[in-house]
Amino acid sequence: MTRPDFDEPIDRRGTLCNKWDDLGSVFGMQGPDALAMWVADMDFRAPLGVRRALEDTVAQGIYGYPGENRPYLESIRWWMATRHGWDVAPEAILSVHGLVNGTALAVDAYTEAGDAVALMTPVYHAFARVVKAAGRTVTELPLAEPDGQYALDWDGWASRLTGKERMLILCSPHNPGGRVWSAEELREIAGFCRERDLILVSDEIHHDLVLPGGPRHTVTALAAPEIADRLVTLTAATKGFNLAGAHLGNAIIPDVGLRDRYKARMGALGISPGLFGLPMVTAAYSPEGADWIDALVAYLADNARIFDDGIAAIPGARSMPLQATYLSWVDFSGTGMAPAEIHKRIEQDARIAANHGESFGTGGAAHMRFNLATPRARVVEAVARLQQAFADLQ
């Protein structure tokens, strides 16, 4: 494999790019000096093999309905077995339009209007959005933070349950905290779901973005096989290989009864994969793709180190130690500033677009999420701008 050049500057403006083209409409930022560090996709080209597979598909010139998808399914099975130690039957894999869609389908399939869905907050903001849009309510279970990193808080959660919960959505690895849950913690979560008769939806989209030198990701299905009759695992190549625009992901459901209920909702809504995502995923889930991911996480680890060191130099600011993902979760509460002042300094003074912590639910106030999957020069520039924006605290 030719070593990828993650330092290559790529101008994504004007390419139908939500992350860069929507800076004006979302943040009011105009001009070439604005830095986009919000939407969770990467400013890196996909692996060469993925691009060639897509070029071959385009070159055919005929873009009809896709049919035989066995190579696609086998590539998923190979990836899960070789990278994550999980032997998945092909019939257990259902293709959805990305993992937000996969989550929404699970809410639709396994809960009713008026039911509640539990979320361990702060957590990926799209979860609450689709739960509420479906006419369900959200039960927030705030994570503890005993040592500067998120932890389960069983004692604190007991009083928050309403009895209406029918599902818990788990983010593993955790977004925005970058935490890799241990096998023991996953077993505890599974036990919690069994005790309360909850369906467990485990969103593992970041499972290929575990940084070197830290804990290994454990597939929930392997950590707690006893939960198989109530477990839906969501995975995708889109996050690790920067293919989010393909809108393609997997709901892996080994239990037949659970899978049939999910398939029924897919059928009712006409959910099926598109033509272009299939060859892209098939090419990504390959030995070449594995080498590319290994190079990527090494690069991301260095970006995280540079960013963390820079944040540590700002009095009152602290980034959570990053074990996985490329999303740095920074706590500015030590500055004593209100969220509005934090936002102003970052967006107006530093000219950086980052996600507001409040959008991730309880526990997110005075936090900001920064996307570090960008060429290192931009990370260095972002650090300099942030330090200048908070220079009066020095």
For the structure shown, list the relevant keywords.
four-stranded antiparallel sheet, 15 helices, seven-stranded mixed sheet, single chain, 13% strand, alpha/beta, 394 residues, 39% helix
Task: Please characterize this protein's 3D structure.
With 394 residues, the chain is an alpha/beta fold. Helices cover 39% and strands 13% of the residues. It has 15 helices and 13 strands. Helix 6 links the parallel strand 3 and strand 4.
Task: Give a brief outline of the structure.
The longest helix has 26 residues, at 287-312.
Topology:
Layout: H1 18-21, H2 23-27, E1 35-36, H3 48-59, H4 70-84, E2 93-96, H5 99-110, E3 116-119, H6 125-133, E4 137-140, H7 154-157, E5 165-171, H8 183-195, E6 199-203, H9 220-223, E7 231-235, H10 238-241, E8 249-252, H11 256-269, H12 277-284, H13 287-312, E9 318-319, E10 327-331, H14 339-349, E11 352-353, E12 355-356, E13 367-371, H15 376-389
Parallel strand pairs: 1-11, 3-4, 3-5, 5-6, 6-7
Antiparallel strand pairs: 2-8, 7-8, 9-10, 10-13, 12-13
User: Describe the biggest sheet?
Assistant: 7 strands, mixed
Number of separate strands:
13
Q: How confident is the prediction overall: mean pLDDT? A: 97
End-to-end distance: 46 Å
β-strand percent reads 5-15%
| Shape, principal axes of CA atoms | globular
User: Major sheet: order of its strands?
Assistant: 2-8-7-6-5-3-4
By helix and strand content, what is the structural category?
alpha/beta
In angstroms, what is the radius of gyration?
Answer: 21 Å
Helix tally equals 15
**Run of helices and strands:** HHEHHEHEHEHEHEHEHEHHHEEHEEEH
Low-confidence segments, ≥5 residues, pLDDT <50? Answer: none
Helix content: 25-40%
